[in-house]
Amino acid sequence: MPINIMQCRSTYTTGGGPDKTVLLIAEKANPAKFTHVLMYMHGAYDTDFQIGNWARAKGLTIHEVPEYKKLDLDNILRVRRLIKQHQIDIIHTRDHKTCVVGYLATLLNPRVKRLFTAHLWQDHDSLKMKFYTWLNLKLLKHYDKIIAVSCALKEFMVARGLPAEKITVIHNAIDTDAWQRTNVPETIRDELSLPVSAKVVGVVGRLRYEKDLPTTLKVAQRVIAERPDCYFLIVGDGPDRDELEQEVADLGLSENIRFLGFRHDTIKIYAGLDVFLSTARIEGTPNTALEAMAMEAPVIYTKVGGVGEIIQDGHDGLLFQVGDVDGISKAALNVLNDEALAEKLRKNGRQSVCEKFSFTQRLKAVEAVYESLMETNS
């Protein structure tokens, strides 16, 4: 009999890196050994929620649970019913809210094993987030196992009282066969009719505080001042978009800095880049970095979270401290002006991802955790 797993997420609109992972795990699983049911909580009035459509297009089983308030007790009962309906063996939660819901929904069902993946975690200033962190750390002591996507995340949790032996580090990974330039006949350059000689820097991610887009814009200003033939393409949506677009307009750079919104075809973006850039303040192990490296786009990233565990500075990418506008700007110009450096980063970046961050390897590691959980039931 296959092991029945419920993948649980609470997110909005188009989600993020963890949702790519959830869909890929469910799609690539061996159906003779594992059955995946997806449970997604999202705002009841979130008309832009797309993950359900993507899952169904792949033939996956997904249940969308609308949220009418912060913690809806009816939804906990609904998740309990789904666990019973699908005879779930393992509930696999991936964020603050589903950590709580997963615990409460299985409280009277000790047969179901609890697994949590920490994709991103950090200390917060806000009282609300401090409470969520405290609550999750308390509840995770009642989880059977925890996966951390970086050693840095494991250290964070151990320092706050979670037992190290309960936590397994499994880095994020991508499907390297899918993410390669030969799969892209037409790039974003063609779509936007950019000059053949133009240089293109890409930024992919949610437009919100964690990604520190104000620093990105400062870097863009400096680079464009030196290279007026350079375009910055900012891909993604979020609460800061209007403010950022207004800042670009005020700078008179709307031609060179373009906001493309959310794109489901990011492979087409990466394939057209001369540099992939992130000035993020906070990260786990970002899928975007792995995707860019696999697509042979030279990567410049801030050294936060687990980024230093996937990028070797100077070998397959360039790393800088948060807010280092001067260093990041100079690095971007160096890569744009030095073809030998760019080629080195392109070649080494793809090689590193193929050797160390292949999704096939990650899937085997995650499935080994599932099997170890079930062995404790034997």
From TrEMBL:
It holds the Pfam family Glycos_transf_1. GO terms for molecular function: glycosyltransferase activity. Residues 51-177 form the Glycosyltransferase subfamily 4-like N-terminal domain. Residues 186-351 form the Glycosyl transferase family domain. Gene3D superfamilies: Glycogen Phosphorylase B. This is Glycosyl transferase family 1. The lineage of its organism: Bacteria, candidate division KSB3.
